[in-house]
Amino acid sequence: MTPHFFRVDDNHTGNESCYPWGQQYFGTLETQVGEPACPQCGGRERTHYAGTLYIHLEGGREWSDVIGVGGSAIRFLISERVLTGLHDAGIDSFEYYQVEIAEVRSRPLRRVPPPPYYYIWPTGRIDIDPVRTEFKLKVLGTCDQCGRLLFEPFPKTLYPSRYMPDHLTPKLDTWDGTHLLKFRNYESQVRLCTERVLRLAREQRWTNSCFEPVDISRRDSIGWRGIDYLGPQWPPKWYPDPASFGKTPDEWREELRSDDTARQYAAFKAFRELGEQGVAQLGRLLDDGQSRVRIDAARILIQLAKEGVEVSEALLERSSTMEPAP
Ligand SMILES: [Zn+2]
User: Fold this and answer.
1) What does the DSSP 8-state code read for residue 276?
2) I need a surface site. Which of 43, 46, 153, 292 has the fewest CB within 10 A?
3) 43 C-alpha vs ligand 1 centroid, how far in Å?
4) For residue 75, with 0-12 CB atoms within 10 Å meaning exposed, 13-18 middle and 19 or more buried, which class applies?
């Protein structure tokens, strides 16, 4: 099935050496737009920027259409070519501001003047579906003033990413019809777009862009390079294969025992995704001759149990006594 909405970003996993990366940015204070807080729930949209931003770039050998920027407020820049393409296609649900490139820390790039770059802030909106998204924090309700979802208090002792939902599901009937958008009722730095933007990226051969279905499982997307929007096949493969695709649980058990770290990592992901179906094989690995394998299997079992997968008391007890390698 074709997804309706995509997460749009720079392709930070690919071409690391080929395209630059924005490392620092600064603007003047008046360029930060603070949204007024909701009088009812106190929620507010995170500050975004307006006006000129100054960015330091590192690395790369050629200028790309999209440049990733560290720090979640900016996310990425677009080239003038992309800006014009969007406008010509009638896509205008975003604010945009020119960026000054204050410093280029790459010798090959210093020889080529950069095209103008822009920071964009999507103004289109859609609600996130609080039921189908399966939030890990309890949803207490909706603010009747601003419509934001209200969550139970955030447990301060635990790392925030533990509370990230596995996938984000937009609520189709709340879509305002725009093609570049953000969530309305849920604070996140995710930039969304529709297939129209993705097709434009394909037609105009935008470089260094990344698109993923927004409802993709985070587990499946680890290590995936996004939809192959420039490839010969259309429609492209919209979703990656599940992590365990192509091998039986017994075969994954052998992969985890492999000396090759890439194969071990693939097996790690496969067992996380297999859940209950892999518990027996992991249990057998607790008796493996290599301590590294025993510890890995124990870690996965403990992780699975935390995620609600049924792991027997006996296996969990053995897993928790596995000593880390000296
Ligand atoms: Zn509110």
Assistant:
1) G
2) 153
3) 6
4) buried
Q: Measured in angstroms, how far is the CA atom of residue 150 from the centroid of ligand 1?
A: 8
| CB 67, CB 77: distance < 8 Å | yes
pTM (two decimals)? 0.80
pLDDT score at 159: 63
Measured CA to CA, the distance from residue 216 to residue 230 in angstroms comes to 20
Q: How do residues 34-71 score in pLDDT, each as one tens digit?
A: 677 899 998 877 667 777 888 899 889 999 999 999 87
Question: Which segments of 106-219 are extended strands (E)?
Answer: 117-122, 124-126, 139-142, 149-151, 180-183, 192-194, 209-213
CA of 30 to the centre of ligand 1 (A): 25
% residues pLDDT > 90 (the chain) = 62
Distance CA 94, CA 194 (A): 14
pLDDT tens across 206-233, in order?
Answer: 999 999 999 998 777 767 889 999 999 9
Rounded Cα distance, 278 and 86, in Å: 46
Taken in order of first residue, the domains within the chain and their CATH numbers are: 5-123+192-221 (no CATH), 249-322 (1.25.10)
